[in-house]
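Here is the promised in-class demo. Please do not try to memorize the tokens; focus on the logic of going from shape to residues.
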């Protein structure tokens, strides 16, 4: 009997997992015991973490895209279609084309989407860099502003223990913004204000989610004349007056509102009804160690445990939340990041060497990574 593994989503996580599974299960695939199938609504793969560089005119769109098929091992069947409904009881995926795909193992690799509409006025008056067109719009504003006030705000999902998108990105883009405006020769005429919300779900009121980094930020910002404020939870935006209001009762004027907006799951995932909380965000309740969706046999959100289930009949791996990356700390400096569920990031001085390493990853190593080569 052949087992079919279906990965829905052709982003970074889904592509890496598909290629790793193709390697680990090569014998089973060759012997026709396992079929690997990826369903994505786009034939193109975008390096989305680099969209923030687009906001500073540092990347062109063509540099950030590859044909999805070119990134996949030949053992992986790739289907361009949109998953619109999941029948989890029958283990069937319904797509926009009208086709149905049965599965034995299902991996949700659909990511998240910005949801600025959740906050009154944010979609109309705010800018962000988490999608290509939005980043291009922000780039136009940053390239032409001569004086005024750029106000930076971060919004968390309402669901407890769900972080905002790309944790370090608000800090990265704030420091990149400072460098960019200095390079343009207009920094002295433009005030930069970085804010972070009162994160009630974690009982913290800081400048970043992880405490060691939050404690290091004031000195970093002070050296660059960047104003900062903790405890500003964006509540609504007055589009006419260009004023941002917080849930804590404060108001901040702006010429540009550079936001990390609220996020939510894609529509098909929201429609599964699996979310524990009915707030429209639709996050899947997941075991943070096995990465298996609670109450759903064979359903994962990115996991190596599929191999163990196939071969041993049970999960054996426990994800520790480990992350390794290099943060962009300005246009040309970088800082190594290493942390996991138990250990926060320990900030180190940014260096030009770190910036060079980040650039090497952006320009080449990323494509090798998603192919499962490194």
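The designed amino acids, position by position:
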């Amino acid at each position: 009997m052949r087992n079919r593994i279906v990965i829905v989503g052709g982003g970074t996580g889904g592509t890496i997992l598909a290629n790793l599974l193709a390697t680990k299960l090569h014998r089973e695939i060759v012997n026709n015991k396992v079929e690997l199938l990826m369903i994505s609504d786009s034939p193109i793969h975008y390096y989305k973490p680099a969209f923030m560089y687009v906001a500073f005119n540092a990347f062109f769109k063509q540099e950030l895209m590859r044909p999805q098929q070119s990134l996949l091992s030949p053992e992986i069947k790739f289907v361009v279609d949109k998953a619109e409904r999941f029948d989890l009881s029958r283990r069937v995926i319904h797509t926009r084309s009208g086709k149905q795909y049965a599965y034995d193992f299902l991996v949700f690799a659909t990511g998240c989407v910005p949801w600025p509409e959740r906050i009154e006025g944010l979609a109309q008056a705010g800018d962000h860099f988490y999608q290509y067109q939005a980043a291009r719009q922000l780039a136009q504003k940053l390239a032409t502003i001569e004086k005024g006030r750029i106000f930076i705000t971060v919004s968390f999902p309402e669901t407890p223990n769900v972080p905002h998108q790309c944790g370090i990105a608000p800090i990265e883009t704030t420091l990149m913004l400072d460098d960019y405006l200095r390079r343009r020769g207009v920094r002295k005429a433009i005030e930069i204000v970085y804010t972070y919300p009162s994160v009630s779900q974690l009982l913290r009121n800081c400048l970043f989610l992880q405490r060691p980094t939050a404690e290091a930020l004031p000195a970093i910002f002070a050296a660059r004349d960047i104003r900062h404020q903790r405890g500003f939870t964006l509540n609504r935006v007055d589009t006419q007056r260009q004023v941002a209001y917080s849930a804590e009762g404060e108001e901040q004027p702006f010429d540009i509102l550079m936001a990390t907006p609220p996020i939510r799951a894609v529509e098909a995932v929201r429609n599964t009804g699996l979310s524990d909380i009915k707030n429209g965000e639709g996050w899947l309740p997941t075991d943070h160690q096995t990465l298996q969706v609670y109450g759903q046999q064979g359903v994962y959100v990115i996991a190596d445990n599929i191999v163990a289930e196939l071969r041993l009949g049970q999960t054996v791996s426990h994800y520790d939340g480990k992350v390794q990356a290099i943060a962009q700390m300005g246009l040309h400096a970088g800082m190594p990041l290493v942390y996991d569920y138990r250990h926060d990031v320990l900030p180190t001085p940014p260096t030009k060497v770190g910036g060079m390493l980040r650039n090497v990853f952006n320009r080449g190593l990323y494509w090798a990574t998603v192919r499962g080569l490194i």
